[in-house]
Design goal:
Radius of gyration of chain B: 13 Å
Structural class of chain A: mainly beta
Number of helices of chain A: 0
Largest interface: A-B, 27 and 26 residues
Strand content of chain A: over 45%
Helix content of chain A: under 10%
Number of strands of chain A: 11
Strand content of chain B: over 45%
Order of helices and strands of chain B: EEEEEEEEEE
Largest sheet of chain A: 7 strands, mixed
Oligomer: heterodimer
Order of helices and strands of chain A: EEEEEEEEEEE
Shape of chain A: globular
Largest sheet of chain B: 7 strands, mixed
Shape of chain B: globular
Helix content of chain B: under 10%
Radius of gyration of chain A: 14 Å
Distance between the termini of chain B: 35 Å
Number of strands of chain B: 10
């Protein structure tokens, strides 16, 4: 069974750094791209970026390029999303999801993590 | 990034069909893209429903009933999610997504479907 399990709720202050995780199981982790999706409170889904754990090739939405860093550690089947300095506007639910197409980033997302709620507030 | 336009809301009665649309900007031809559709219920992550490129190239998500189907209206440059035999459990937000030629994906704004 394909599963993506994300790390727990985070409450941080603006300016702090943060790294959240997404652990994959039940499939070949290095074969499928893993993406990150933001959902701000009461709003829609936003495509942030995607990484290929096999070689860490990464693609970002222009809206998120330079704002976050996506990484992966294939030795522990885990992808990460990190911020160097959180803003209040980063408060949102963040989902990781597996790409539908093995080896190619150009597709949708077929399996989703449960989400990580990030709150940045002073 | 292109903007995918979805009506904010739609409604239909149980047993009827719901036709949800996703309109692409005029500089992107819907005929050349896979359209991906997702369902999201309150407090839950999105669920992958299906993708549609053409009648000969389409795919259903794992466990998704066949009453969820996709199509395109090329004249309106629109992707369509059709839900037949509506049930109360189909009440949710629905999002479309494409991968345009910008090396990243993009979601539509979502449609809230109410089953009356």
């Amino acid at each position: 069974e394909v599963q993506l399990v994300q790390s727990g709720t985070e409450v941080k202050k603006p300016g702090e750094s943060l790294k959240i995780s997404c652990k994959g199981s039940g499939y070949s982790f290095t074969t499928y791209w893993i993406g990150w999706v933001r959902q701000m409170p009461g709003k829609g889904l936003e495509w942030m970026g995607i990484i290929y754990p096999g070689d860490s090739d990464t693609k970002y939405s222009p809206s998120f390029q330079g704002q976050v860093t996506i990484s992966a550690d294939k030795s522990v089947n885990t992808a990460y999303l990190q911020w160097g300095s959180l803003k209040a506007s980063d408060t949102a639910m963040y989902y990781c999801a597996r790409g539908t197409n093995a080896w190619s980033p150009e597709g949708g997302f077929d399996y989703w993590g449960q989400g990580t709620l990030v709150t940045a507030s002073s | 990034q292109p903007v995918l336009t979805q009506p904010p809301s739609s409604s239909a009665s149980p047993g009827e069909s719901a036709r949800l649309t996703c309109t692409l900007p005029s500089d992107i031809n819907v005929v050349t893209y896979n359209i991906y559709w997702y369902q999201q219920k309150p407090g839950s992550p999105p669920r992958y429903l299906l993708y549609y490129y053409s009648d000969s190239d389409k795919g259903q998500g794992s466990g998704v009933p066949s009453r969820f189907s996709g199509s395109k209206d090329a004249s309106a440059n629109t992707g369509i999610l059709l839900i037949s035999g509506l049930q109360s459990e189909d009440e949710a937000d629905y999002y479309c997504m494409i991968w345009p030629s910008h090396a990243s994906g993009v979601f539509g704004g979502g449609t809230k479907l109410t089953v009356l």
